[in-house]
Write a structure and sequence with these properties.
The protein has 224 residues and is of the alpha/beta class. It has helices spanning 2-8, 20-28, 43-47, 54-67, 72-78, 86-96, 99-103, 107-111, 118-129, 131-142, 178-187, 211-219, and strands at 166-170, 191-193, 202-205, 222-223. Strand 3 (202-205), helix 12 (211-219) and strand 4 form a beta-alpha-beta unit. Helix 5 (72-78) crosses helix 6 (86-96).
Length: 224
């Protein structure tokens, strides 16, 4: 149940409407036992559960369908690999570019990834060496989960205009969610911090920006 909740979480596959109580019902009624089975659920099966109407069942099926289009970083984080948090998942996705390259990577290749030490590298290697995990990954891909792959850092000579820069986001941005803005900043080499300090290079302020904007002005930090 915890693996399914983690997989469906907002920062993972972002399946809206799949909360604790519904996961309890889906598992307890034997509708799903593994992650790939989420994508075989039918609206009529969900609607038959307690406190679930046809409308909410249809919404969940639509949310599952929408989640099939994701990013490699989100997918890696969603798998729940021990010691692989959101930031490490992004570093792995950026470094290897594609899932197959990561799954086949040796310990030495994993250790070449930014901020990946021996414990994390061993955990990743162990995860992808297990036949059960490889099967789950393949079944999820067969279920239509997809993302845009790249050649990885070895072939990535794209500009990194924010390399070495720390940015803080505040307020509501007109065209991007907070997560989308964070992804763009990190793709350009920057780091996103949660609070403003003298080490902050830029504060990106949207509408209804609050105390972080005040702090930036107080410290003389550039506001975008």
């Amino acid at each position: 149940k915890q693996a399914i909740l983690h997989f469906a979480g907002r920062r993972a596959m972002d399946v809206e409407g799949l909360g604790d109580k519904l996961v309890d019902q889906l598992v307890d009624s034997d509708l799903i036992r593994t992650l790939p089975e989420l994508f075989t659920l039918r609206a009529d099966q969900i609607a038959a559960l307690e406190r679930m109407a046809e409308k909410s069942a249809a919404k969940l099926v639509a949310a599952l369908d929408k989640s099939r289009h994701t990013t490699l970083a989100r997918f890696l984080y969603a798998l729940g690999i021990r010691h692989v948090g959101e930031t490490t998942a992004k570093d792995l996705a950026r470094h290897f570019g594609g899932l197959d390259a990561l799954m086949q990577a040796s310990l030495e290749q994993l250790l070449a990834v930014k901020d990946v030490g021996p414990v994390v590298a061993h955990s990743i290697r162990t995860f992808f060496e297990q036949a059960h995990n490889r099967e789950v990954v393949q079944r999820l891909r067969d279920a239509g989960i997809e993302w845009v792959e790249s050649a990885g850092v070895a072939a990535d000579s794209g500009p990194q205009p924010l390399a070495g820069k720390t940015l803080v986001l505040t307020g509501t941005l007109p065209t991007l969610s907070r997560d989308q803005a964070k992804d763009l900043i990190e793709a350009a080499g920057g780091k996103v911090a949660g609070s403003v300090s003298k080490k902050t290079h830029f504060v990106v302020a949207g509408s209804e920006a609050g105390s972080k904007l005040d702090k930036a002005r107080e410290l003389g930090v550039a506001v975008l």
